[in-house]
Amino acid sequence: MNLVALTGNIGKIEELGDANGTPVLSFSMATNDYMGKAKGEVTNWHTVNLVGSQAKFVNEYGANYKKASVKGKIIHDQWETKEGEKRSKTKIYADDVELLVPREEKAEAAPPPKKLEFPGT
Which fold has domain 4-35+42-109? Predict the structure, then answer.
């Protein structure tokens, strides 16, 4: 099963695009991992891709938030440049995104974050 869940800091949000009439958007997200005393904390940057209503939602409200939580799948792209160098990039194709922690200066413009509801509570 290809399933990933990440929570991290929102980086650059790209402009809303269009793919055959479907809204598309990507943004960068940073996660931090503690790698022990020798390396300390390491920041990893991820590219998150969204389509449809999730893309429109992040386009409208994403800049008002510092953090996001995403769930989706990982796709690993590999290619070779014209110079023969091998390159790769890992992308997250998110099915669900939740915006967390409003930015103080934009808190009034931010909608309330989604409330997670669990059965029986």
Answer: OB fold (Dihydrolipoamide Acetyltransferase, E2P) (2.40.50)
DSSP state letter for 118: -
91 CB-contact burial (10 Å; exposed 0-12 / middle 13-18 / buried 19+)? middle
Q: What is the DSSP letter of 84?
A: S
Whole-number Cα distances in Å, 83 to 19, 76, 77, 78: 30, 21, 18, 15
Q: CA-to-CA distance for 88 and 38, rounded, in angstroms?
A: 27
Beta strands in 35-108, from DSSP E residues, in sequence order: 41-51, 65-80, 86-102
* pLDDT, tens only, 97-117: 999 988 876 556 555 555 434
Helical H segments across the chain, by residue range: 53-61
What is the length of the chain? 121
Q: What are the extents of the domains in the chain?
A: 4-35+42-109
Whether the model clears a pTM of 0.85, i.e. scores above it, the answer is no
H/E stretch holding 107 reads none
